[in-house]
Structures are given as C-alpha cells and as structure tokens.
Amino acid sequence: MNEPLINRWIKTDCGRAKFAELATREGMLAKVRLGWFVVIAAVRDWRLPSS
C-alpha cells in the first residue's frame, strides 16, 4: 500500500510509464507538459477501476 499518489489518478501501465519518463525531464516547458499530461490522463482514466 506504499504506492505513489499519482497512481490514484493515472491508472494504466502505459500512462504510468509515460509519467515516469516526463517526470525526469528538466526545464519549464517540460514541467508544463508534465502537468498537461497528468490532467489529460486523469480525465481519460477517471472511469477505469483502480488496479
């Protein structure tokens, strides 16, 4: 039960892998893209059951 909090919002394996990739990038534009990705992924995964 020691999962990262982001796993509540991003539920697919491919989404979690993309989040991990984007989270490692540096720079302001990369942080904006990461935020945008989290919002879109959370909306798309909203109806999926938690794994």
The percent range for strand residues is under 5%
Supply the helix-strand structural class: mainly alpha
Label the overall shape.
globular
pLDDT < 50 runs, ≥5 residues? none
Indicate the mean pLDDT.
Answer: 90
Number of continuous helical runs: 2
Number of strands: 0
Number of discrete domains: 1
Quick one: biggest sheet? none
In N-to-C order, the SSE pattern is HH
Distance between the termini: 12 Å
Please tell me how large the radius of gyration is: 11 Å
Fraction of helical residues: 40-55%
How are the elements arranged and paired?
Blueprint lengths: L12 H11 L4 H17 L7
Helix pairs in contact: 1-2
Keywords:
51 residues; mainly alpha; 55% helix
Please explain how this structure is put together:
There is one protein chain. α1 packs antiparallel against α2. The mean pLDDT is 90. The chain has one domain. It is 55% helix and 0% strand. The longest helix has 17 residues.
Question: What's the gist of this structure?
Answer:
The protein is mostly helical and 51 residues long. It has helices spanning 13-23, 28-44. The termini are close together.
